[in-house]
Amino acid sequence: MDKLDQRLLALLSENGRESVTVLAQKLSVSRATVQERMRRLEKQQVIQGYTIRFAADYLNTRVVAHVLIATDQKQPAQLNRQIEKIPAVKALYSISGEYDIFAVVQEETTADLDRQIDRLAELEGVRRTLTSVVLSKKFER
Known about the structure:
One of its GO terms (cellular component) is cytosol. It holds the Pfam family HTH_AsnC-type. This is Lrp/AsnC family transcriptional regulator. GO terms for molecular function: sequence-specific DNA binding. The chain has 141 residues and is of the alpha+beta class. The protein has two domains: 3-43, Arc Repressor Mutant, subunit A (Orthogonal Bundle); 61-133, Lrp/AsnC effector binding domain/regulation of amino acid metabolism (RAM) domain (Alpha-Beta Plaits, 2-Layer Sandwich). The chain is built from six helices and four strands. It has helices at 3-14, 20-27, 31-43, 56-59, 76-84, 110-121, and strands spanning 63-71, 89-94, 101-107, 126-133. The chain has a four-stranded antiparallel beta sheet with strand order 2-3-1-4, covered by helices on one side. The chain starts with a helix and ends in an 8-residue tail after the last strand.
């Protein structure tokens, strides 16, 4: 990956809907160059999709929790697949330390969030959980 790829990725991370023409102008290269680079980055799975960023006002209407999960480590892949099926879990990370997994859970109400955390705690292989509810987001890159 060269500097042009990095600049292209930076522009796409700011606005994934930017047209190829505008990207080419901003990068001072041809449209064909931008298209070829995007195709290559997609094929290499550097770019795995194009998404949206929600306005802070919208996200502030949703309840987000960070859930640390301690597991029995017998079948981590199976547990990960079970957690992946829960739509409220927006991200799942393997971590080091006292806990094994870190989940980001998002729901519309605290009652819904409570149900999802109970659902996580009841999965086979989960020993215990520790939850912190996000009060506000200061920034995100």
